[in-house]
Write a structure and sequence with these properties.
The protein has 260 residues and is of the alpha/beta class. It has a 7-stranded parallel beta sheet with strand order 3-2-1-4-5-6-7, sandwiched between helices. Helix 4 runs parallel beside helix 5. The longest helix has 29 residues. The two termini are 27 Å apart.
């Protein structure tokens, strides 16, 4: 299927691994040139080389902390007029809200709400002027079904979702769409590291822990990041201009609801 985005330009944040990398790879396979970002230069350069080799597209790697104004400025200098923006950042730590300080909350809200809003603010008017724009915010399944120990993530990402819900309706007439992708359990380094820790504490093989987690999902497995990347590319398609302000939950059916 031709998504109609060949030769478009995209910024993909936190793209050195995991779901961000999967989104970058899928976009590149559909002919998009990329500026990708993460904090660790070595991982980022390796990912850029992998995507170039697999797709033949131009991939510019910008090592910077996207949650800072300086980091955002570096990324935007490399791609000042993107057609596509994929917002992504590491989630806040788990824990009990009683243990979180005001500084902890400020960091969480900055990384998972303010940062994507600032990036949207920087690029949306250019997209409006060019009559094409696709913005995808990677949030979390916890936006729909809050996870108690992820309170900072629940709050910050839900705040972003609420803001975008209003803005998306304002810019849609210009062929600029803003939507959310809400991941459930995908086999990323973050999920694997959590399972490794659980296996260590239980003194059990990692494979058993993964198998148990998989059985709790209606699909009988955890997600493949490739599937997530393809969903991102679909939301960025030229033919997806009537998908506005939606939050697509990719969790294998774990969230049990008749109407989303």
């Amino acid at each position: 299927m031709d998504l109609g985005i060949k030769d478009k330009k995209a910024i993909v944040c936190a793209a050195s691994k995991g779901l961000g990398k999967a989104c970058a790879m899928s976009l590149a396979h559909n002919g998009v040139d990329l500026v990708i970002n993460s904090r660790t230069a070595s991982d980022l350069e390796a990912t850029a080389a992998e995507i170039r080799a697999a797709t033949g597209r131009t991939v510019t790697a910008i090592a910077a902390d996207i949650t800072t104004a300086e980091g955002r400025a570096k990324v935007l200098a490399a791609c000042p007029a993107p057609d596509i923006l994929v917002n992504n950042a590491g989630g806040p730590p788990r824990g009990d809200f009683r243990d979180w300080s005001e500084a902890d909350w400020m960091k969480a809200v900055n990384g998972n709400m303010i940062t994507p809003i600032m990036l949207i603010k920087s690029v949306v008017d250019g997209m409006i002027a060019r009559k094409f724009g696709r913005i995808v915010n990677i949030t979390s399944g916890s936006v729909k079904s809050p996870i108690p120990e992820l309170g900072m993530s629940n709050g910050a990402r839900a705040g972003l979702t609420g803001f975008v819900g209003g803005l998306a309706r304002q810019v849609a007439r210009h062929n600029v769409t803003i939507n959310g992708l809400l991941p459930g359990p995908f086999l990323t380094d973050r999920l694997r590291s959590g399972m490794i820790e659980a296996a260590r504490k239980a003194n059990r093989p990692l494979e058993e822990i993964l198998a148990e987690r998989s059985k709790t999902n209606p699909t009988g497995r955890v997600g493949d990041p490739f599937e997530f990347g393809e969903a991102c590319a679909f939301l960025c398609a030229a033919s997806s201009g009537f998908i506005v302000g939606q939050n697509l939950l990719l969790d294998g059916g774990a969230f049990n609801s008749t109407m989303g």
